[in-house]
User: Fold this.
Amino acid sequence: MTQYDLILLGAGHAHLGVLRRWAMFERPQGRIALVSVGHHAWYSGMLPGLISGQHAADDCRVELAPLCRGAKVELIVDQVAALQADTRQVQLASGACLQGKWLSLNVGGALSQPTQSGTAIECLAVKPFESFLQGWQRWKDDPAPTAIIGGGAAGVELALAMARHVPHLALFCSGRLLSGHNAGLHLRALGHLRQRRVNVREYCPISHIENDQLFSEQQAVWQGARVLLASGAAALPWLAQSGLECDARGFVNIAPTLQSFSHPHVFAVGDCSALPGAMRSGVYAVRQGQVLANNLAAVLHGTPLRRYRPQRQSLALLATGDGGALLGWRNWSAGGQIFGRLKDYLDYGFIRRHQWQG
Ligand SMILES: Cc1cc2nc3c(=O)[nH]c(=O)nc-3n(C[C@H](O)[C@H](O)[C@H](O)COP(=O)(O)OP(=O)(O)OC[C@H]3O[C@@H](n4cnc5c(N)ncnc54)[C@H](O)[C@@H]3O)c2cc1C
Assistant:
């Protein structure tokens, strides 16, 4: 078993920020590794732009090897299969086993999938991005009616990006479209979706898939062959089996220092964690990265930890698939090409900041 002082699990938004800080400034002492399923970290905010043809794949991902070299962190390309919080052991899919004095989890979430009987409908999940992009290429080359399940920011942006390529596109959401966002943004998004002839079904939770039909409770609501899963994050199953205290949905309960309540030697951030006031979105994960970098260095050096306070509001910028974007801030909303340019500026800035040279 290979021993480390600190193991970063998953190349999520917060860990990218940690690596960048350590590459730019002083890195804490000790043997440190990052475990990532791939050689790249994809930036979800740019995925809709990749689908609509605004970006190339290389624009939307950060190469991990140079960033890890800069931060003097060992890059282990493998998948975490299991974690034992009590013994601090990490089992990898390759069969290798690692042990860390400190662990930090930034592995994101899974997608919820309705139960399915029959194989008439092909379900494609938006994550992991590599397999989604391969599946999408196949779908794009041979278009057929498609339903998207999930009416959050991801579902809306993907529907707007895909509409040009898919003949009949339906978007299902369990509640109001873009719930949690302001009413103006909701109306603007509906307007754009109608313009692209996307059939939007609000308050229509999909309970199960039977043969070639989607059901909401006992009623068949759609018939077709392809379903894209883009509904809210579910927890990765191995987290609840790790011994870490998790909430009812299987996300790791953390304190404001970003440490697990039950196992303070394990940090957890981003979509895999649960903290009152923190939303599951890239914006929150990025902000947590600043406190995480400080606190990981603090535990390795024995200095005081900082507390993370979730911001009350966050700016929403949703790509409309035509180079433009919708903006939502508090009760205010707007839309147009200028916001698309603002989104590109921020998104490309994120990638540039983490694309380490040397
Ligand atoms: C299409 C789309 C558009 C979105 N747009 C926005 C947006 O504009 N703004 C916004 O704030 N949010 C957006 N989101 C939500 C956002 O993607 C997530 O909330 C955010 O990515 C969470 O960040 P994270 O750091 O927790 O995890 P992630 O960014 O999901 O990163 C997790 C990392 O862990 C890796 N991983 C997973 N399992 C394992 C394992 N077992 N072993 C090793 N590595 C593993 C993954 O490969 C990934 O690299 C969007 C989501 C989608 C799907």
User: Anything to note?
Assistant: Residues 282-301 form the longest helix (20 residues).
